[in-house]
Design brief:
By secondary structure, the chain is α/β, with parallel strands linked by helices. The chain is 38% helix and 23% strand. Strand 6 (86-92) and strand 7 form a beta hairpin.
């Protein structure tokens, strides 16, 4: 004798599922297009929020305080670091960069996707302290494409551009340490792949919250 629901019976779903938040880390060499991908992702997906890093790097002409970065003095940076306010920090090209812990934790607890745009040193640091984060390596089509992008944006001195290009081959070798790889050759395809990664990670069972 059947013990299942009778024909035509409506089975009630006991609860709804809501995707949980997580930390999404984008890394890659300078000029790979991380910032553009982050901007497109955050603009298209309201569940995504950009985590603004603190840096001692001078503000570029096309940047605004509190939008791309929080620009601070080295003394202020070191004060916050000593106070344990940073999730991770790194010195890159003689400048300091760090991710504020509080913003990340509050966003993830609220079910949001907190997006970090960090260099490969920062990416390695985040993976160590937050192994549950999702890491994406943004890979350029070529070193020449990197050079062209860095020169076109006209935000760095020539010697800074050369330093970034000199460091790029070593940074590119780090892609194996990441969960995903996005080759940023065609921007629309790269954006679509990044969004697909976000959708797949939001659907992971261990992140779903029953409501």
């Amino acid at each position: 004798m059947s013990t299942g629901p009778s024909a035509g019976a409506v089975t009630r779903i006991p609860f709804q599922f809501a995707p949980g938040g997580f930390l999404l880390v984008l890394s890659g060499p300078s000029g790979a297009g991380k910032g553009t991908l982050v901007d497109r992702l955050v603009a298209a997906r309201p569940e995504c929020t950009f985590s603004i890093s603190a840096t001692t790097r001078p503000r570029r002409s096309n940047e605004e305080e509190g939008v791309q970065y929080e620009f601070v003095s080295r003394d202020e940076f070191e004060r916050r670091r000593a106070a344990g306010l940073f999730l991770e920090w790194a010195e890159v090209h003689d400048q300091l960069y760090a991710t504020p812990t509080r913003f990340v934790d509050e966003g993830v607890r609220a079910g949001r996707i907190v997006v970090l745009d960090v260099d490969v040193q920062g990416g390695a640091s985040v993976r160590r302290v937050r192994p549950d984060s999702v890491s994406v390596f943004v890979y350029p089509p070529s070193i020449e494409a990197l050079r062209k992008r860095l020169l076109q944006r006209s935000t760095d001195l020539p010697e800074v551009v050369e330093t970034r290009l000199h460091n790029a081959p070593g940074e590119l070798m780090q892609y194996r340490e990441y969960d995903y790889l996005v080759v940023n050759d065609d921007l629309e395809q790269a954006v679509a792949r990044l969004m697909a990664i976000v959708d797949a990670e939001r659907a992971r069972v261990h992140r779903l919250r029953a409501e």
